[in-house]
Amino acid sequence: MASSSSSPAPAPAPAGESLRQKRILSSKLYLDVPSSKAPVVYSPAYDISFLGLEKLHPFESAKWGRICRYLTREGHLEKKKLVEPLEACKEDLLVVHTEAYLNSLKSSYRVASIVEVPPVSLVPNWIVHKKLLYPFRKQVGGSILSAKLALERGWSINVGGGFHHCSAEEGGGFCAYADISLCIQFSFVRLNISSVLIIDLDAHQGNGHEKDFANDGRVYILDMYNAGIYPFDFTAKQYIDQKVELVSGTKTDEYLEQLDNALEVCKSRFQPQLIVYNAGTDILDGDPLGKLEISPEGVVTRDEKVFRFAKDQNIPVLMLTSGGYMKSSARVIADSIINLSNKNLIELGNQLG
Ligand SMILES: [Zn+2]
């Protein structure tokens, strides 16, 4: 909007909003990243190793490191080109979360129910924070930084993040912090943008960000998910701008056709300045939680379609790896990143050949 000296001064932001802005402006998470680095964000601190308890959740808790090892050892990305994020501190988390919610994480019992690993309730809370919540907070810092990198470079990938079941006031489904809501709120203030598209293609409905952006016209949500599995959140469902509900057993061809149609509709309805792509791999055939039957090649094609959708319209895109709990997930994600690079949709800087 054009401004002139005769325009009235803008109305002051409400108290809560101005505190949020102050927190965002004083955050240290928006690091200056040199151009010698690739916009691929990862820290060894992402990986969870928790007294063997991680084995009790159907979750491959070293997925994030494994993805990076495939990329670096096979010569697609130099280790030194990875971007290490800072941990999201309490002031950063308060940009979205309530103090009451963060305090609730001081109960190991509460954290145990969020990550769905009951024995965690018996572990002293300081250990729970160090071994479980700290890795999550590093990943949250990575998601927030990824939005800045996407605007600077046109694309970015946070090798972790995508905790789409957590909202400002409630965690669940292995998601303790609302990194998607946080990264979008930071982008509004620090990147001066006012329209964000969330493309959520994890197998589960993304009820966390849906509740956080209920009736917020700046955010358009396209969510394609299996309607027959967790979380069955009918309140959050009404805040999805464009939903594609799948049934258990949906196969690759039908999935990709539905995605093509959805992206076409989306293109005609909303013009975003940033795309947050939640790229869960729990759509893979054999995933015990996602219950869809998408082939590894189908996942690679899916990611290519989303990146092409972004590139064709010249919209910055950031990808989060989100759910995907099988041992094979890391290989598929690495293959997908390699494919994006081979198709010139991203530039890792040192491809072989
Ligand atoms: Zn999921």
UniProtKB/TrEMBL annotation:
GO-annotated molecular function: histone deacetylase activity, hydrolytic mechanism
Cross-referenced CDD domains: HDAC_classIV
GO cellular component, one term: histone deacetylase complex
Keywords: Chromatin regulator, Hydrolase, Nucleus, Repressor, Transcription, Transcription regulation
Domain Histone deacetylase: 57-338
Any one GO biological process: epigenetic regulation of gene expression
Keyword Transcription regulation: yes
Location of this chain's protein in the cell: Nucleus
Top-level division of the source organism's lineage: Eukaryota
Entry annotated with the keyword Transcription: yes
Catalytic activity: N(6)-acetyl-L-lysyl-[histone] + H2O = L-lysyl-[histone] + acetate
Reported cofactor(s): Zn(2+)
EC number: 3.5.1.98
Function of the protein: Responsible for the deacetylation of lysine residues on the N-terminal part of the core histones (H2A, H2B, H3 and H4). Histone deacetylation gives a tag for epigenetic repression and plays an important role in transcriptional regulation, cell cycle progression and developmental events. Histone deacetylases act via the formation of large multiprotein complexes.
Protein name according to UniProt: histone deacetylase
Species per Swiss-Prot/TrEMBL record: Panicum hallii var. hallii
Organism taxonomic ancestry: Eukaryota, Viridiplantae, Streptophyta, Embryophyta, Tracheophyta
